[in-house]
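Work package 3, deliverable 3.1, input record:
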Amino acid sequence: MSELVQTLALSLLVGGIYALVASGLTLIFGVMRVINIAHGAFLILGSFLTYTLWDALGLDPLLGVLVTTPVVFALGWAVYRLFVRPIRDAPMSSTVLLTFGLALVTEGVMGSVWGNDSTAIRPSYVNSSFHLGSVFLPEAQVYGGVVAAVVLVGFWVLLTRTWLGRAIRAAATNPASAELVGIKVTSVAALVFGLGLAAAGAGGSIIGVLYPFVPGSHYLWISRLLAIVVLGGLGSLEGAVLAALVFGVAETVTAVYVSPAWATAVPYVIVFAVLLVRPQGLLGTRLRDDAVAA
Amino acid sequence: MSHVSARSRWKAVALVGAVSIGLAACGGSGGGGSSDGGSSGGSGGPALSIGASLPLTGDFSEPGSAAKQGYEVWQSIVNAKGGLLGRQVKLVIKDDASNQNTIVSDYNALIAQDKVDLVLGTFSSLLNLPASAVAEKNRMLYVEPAGGSPKMFNRGYKYLFFAQQATADKQGLTFAKWVTELPEAQRPKTAAYPTLDDPFAAPNVEGIRKVLEAAGISTVYQTTYAIDTKNFDSIVAAMKAKSPDVVVHGATFEDGVGLTRAMLKSGWTPGMFYETSAPSFADQYVKAVGEPNTEGVMYAVSYSPEADTPGNADFVAKYKEMFGSDVPPEDAADAFAAAEVMAAAVEAVGSIEDQSKLADWLRANKVDTILGPLSWDETGAPTGEFLIGQWQKGKAEVVLPAGAATAEPAVGWHPGS
Amino acid sequence: MSAAEGGVARVRDAAGILWVGRGIAVVAGLLLVAFPLLSDDQYYQNMVILSLVFAVAATGLSIITGLTGYVSLGQGAFVGLGGYTVGVLATHHPDTSVWVWVPVAGLVAAAVALALGLVSLRTRGPAFVIITVAFLFLVQVVAINWRSVSGGTEGLSLPLPTWSADIANWPFYYSLVGLLALQLLLSWWIRRTKLGTGLVAIREDETKAATIGVNLPVEKMIAFVASTVLVGMAGGVYGYYLTFIDPRGMFNILLSVETMLALLVGGKATLWGPVLGAFIVEPLNEYTNNNLGGGNARLLLFGGLLVVIVLFLPQGVLPAVESLLTRLRTRGRAGLVGARIGTGGGISSLTGHLSLVDRPTGEASPPPLLEVKDLRKSFGGLRAVDGVHLTVPEGSITGLIGPNGSGKTTLFNLIDDTIRADSGEIWLGGERIDGLPSWSRAHRGLGRTFQITRLFREMTVLENVVAAQRSFSWGQLGRIAVSGAEARAAEELLEYVGMRAFRDQRANDLSYGQQKLVELAQVLMLDPRLILLDEPAGGINPVLIDRMSEMIRELNSYGKTFLIVEHNMPFVLGLCDPVHVLGHGRTMASGTPDEVQADPAVLDAYLGEDFVPEPRDPVAPENPSMGEEVRRP
């Protein structure tokens, strides 16, 4: 029984961090119908930036969020202007290929700058835990979960309680009408792309503390993130958060009760199952682009 | 050889034709390397080139980079001593990105394009398996520093040799035997066997498990995880629930550190801890898990920097000079030893024209290396006994077998002490 | 210059380029075959062997991705499956020649493609891309964990070749050359058949393709299998060549990326593009690896190329060169678009292709050909079609009018299953068809044009017409479409509508009115019993409007039944009888033109205020059409 409680506690902590990163991916899709395969790569970039800040300046990695978020935001803004915007009328699969290319380039750049050795960030609290009875909650995970929750709530407030959020939703629902009421859709889109990636950057800081990483780690992350946003329903923020928690539990439970070897298959099985059985995911619109257009 | 060069003009014509017409837009790209005409000639002449492709990026970049250092140290030492067969040695090292198609291309390129005189092996069984096939097809001696999967040696290859003391399935046996012979009070009753799904780590753990089970130590937890597993909390949570006396962990570097840290975080640690690979990474390992947490960790190792083997002192000194660390990583030493083995065969035979003679010589002789004396059976598998190391007071000691030991084995893992 | 002459000149140019291209291909092919005889350099042989593997994989991929428009990043999985099939079988049967298993590898790849296709081809666009990637990783996880068969991460070692080391690479080399030749032949053949035009139609506009009789699941499935079977065999040869296969190598995503790159670089919709691309990308890969520092440089190369191609050269090298040459050679010559539409041919010439009957005039009460009963469709809260009843008598020209937003086009969409109805019944010729997919309805005699013409923009006029499939049979799919009987039939239909001179123009280059005519010919190719015309007179000039109504009358006099949605009241009232009026998704009135005009409810709701509405802007559809890409901000 305590093993089960332990398992669930760990998986929910992980799920919270998944939720943060996945929300960025789903936001980008929701507003501009771009599936950003480079999301995982920018997450790892966030981890590497955090590593450098921690290693060179001694900055606490979780405070690194304050740096990685704006830096990756700016990168995302530039990526949108330079790469995504020019092909906005191309088929959606073109943007998948484009962002895949960006992911590979980012991986190559990270390998050249930071090397391909496994990198780990280890602040003082990395090996300690809070203990509640027989259940342990690793400190880093708890702090990371709190930071993720704070950023996520900030994100949510921005999207639902501000003029910018309304502009974003207007641009997503009906770009032409949004232009009519004075919303610069292109600027909003660039902003959204930046915000979406910033979530990945923030997540990267947290994840860098929890697990070691190499430039090639982004494949694993993008698989997970895609599974989460597909499960939650592409474009649905609430869906992504819910799916992230579900996913965290599914992955951990598989690792503990089936085999860690099959835990890596969880994201792919989820993608298959969801796209076939319920393409709209838990809380979303349908991903099939015939339905997207209708 | 002359046969080839007589055709070189044809080759160039055909190549340029095929490439330029076939590629239309991009004719030059494929022909980039076609101009070199390096040839091996008589003795005493140009440098002897020795090729290897190592995983400098990708999954195995850590040990791959260490192996590169080992080869470079060997090159430096051997050239200072006048080279091999009286010729200076020139290493040609490529990066295969831990990718098996690339490694096949790389060894083909080394042999056919760079026209190296000799090749050395790469890191990990996964890469050595296809690479050794290229060497075998080209009838070139292939001594590999790290690729202990038993599968390497059941293929009937004639040119393949493994420059460590034992194949993976036998590397932990010394440790297992020691455990079973402990006094009743100290001997563990239950054991857990988490292992990476890897051709090196898994057989090592499997070999130990068979011995321990036969001695009545019951297996309470056993699992295999994939290479991209990053989250070890769940494995540790499962182990903690069973609370085994000894954990035998099949790992490479990153996952070894990951599991160790997850155990420390969980507040539960087993009384005894054996782990493959990671603890042998010297400084890197200490930095990763923290020095106090290394106390008592045991591991299989092919090499000790302290060892009193021929040439080891030179190796350690040269390594420090070139790379600034007192403690060369095991993979660097293994690579160095592989080069030593190859060089011994070359010097003994005196010619590299017919490399089957080099292979015949190795099958019949024992070679002294910095790892100790090595010898091989018909398949190229080594016939020696592996070392067991243990971290004691922040220092990596060899504790087993008694003959090679630098310290007495101590029972138990005492993290934080 | 007359249209016909211009067309001939254009064709001659195209043929010239074609022959130059063929010449280059022959020379390159001969060099490829002769290369191992000329040089025993292992390095270049290895490079060519790997390029050949990618060439087969990319040429195969071009069937599903280039031709059909389904972008797959899982192509590498079929190379890996082929390798594993050969590896597993060779391990279990050490005494049998490894080559025996190569065809089996093709069968396994085909079987897996079939299974994957059954599930994945239900999705489109990015969902399909994601599912193919997920498939690749899933196969990898299975290969890692299914140890008893696959050997797990330790992989499988194949026996070393038994033949003389002097010709060590020849068997691999030549079997791959042979596989490439077969794959090219298969691709070439498919492109020339009805199957091929059907696949391009799917790529261009899948929903529309279904309405002209293209059986989507079957044809996509064939395309998927055809794009993998020889690739699986090439994978088998590749595995044997490597002598060692393991999950991380064989199912590496970079294999798929490199295949995709070869396809994109060369030109995804061309026959030779993928081959050219493979022989560019793989040597570039080797060069990068050997001279520019390996792993990271390779990632930068692959990623950078992918970005550059998508941004700047989406068509690929071959089409870019081709269009450059065409531009140079046709500079100064007038295009065809301004040419005059032909006067049209006599309908008698069509009797071989259309089932035309002399309709007995004045029959008392002809049986209904189409019956719609209580049909309903809601979009969210909006009831677009809210219980429509109507009948179209056999042999009639029935009109359907109503104010904007009254549900006319939606009704058409429901009748031909462009949108599936929520409830209600549709009967065609006494058979209930509301459960059938679009293509089955087309096969049963339903043809339909669109309010905004939906021709396949990248296809020529002729290809647009031959793309229609009037029934489904395997034999028909294999029939050559671009020449022979099918093409002749299409040309005669084009002659009839007056568009024969434009047969080799891209549909995209036609004027709106011309597109309407071609779409009519396309629908006629189905030999339908009932033709639904959505605003046939909308947005075209008065001369063409007259020609249109003349053709409708003529076809009708030979037995074709019409249901016409039109805003041009004189056109409708002069042509149609009976006329149905829709309002708020319901049938408001039905009757002769006179009766309808006299109906006070109709007058009130519709005719009174808006008797002769001006033709509507053709670019503002009532409902956004399905299957179109959303415009992104």
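Residues 2-293 of chain A form a domain with the ABC transporter involved in vitamin B12 uptake, BtuC fold (CATH 1.10.3470).
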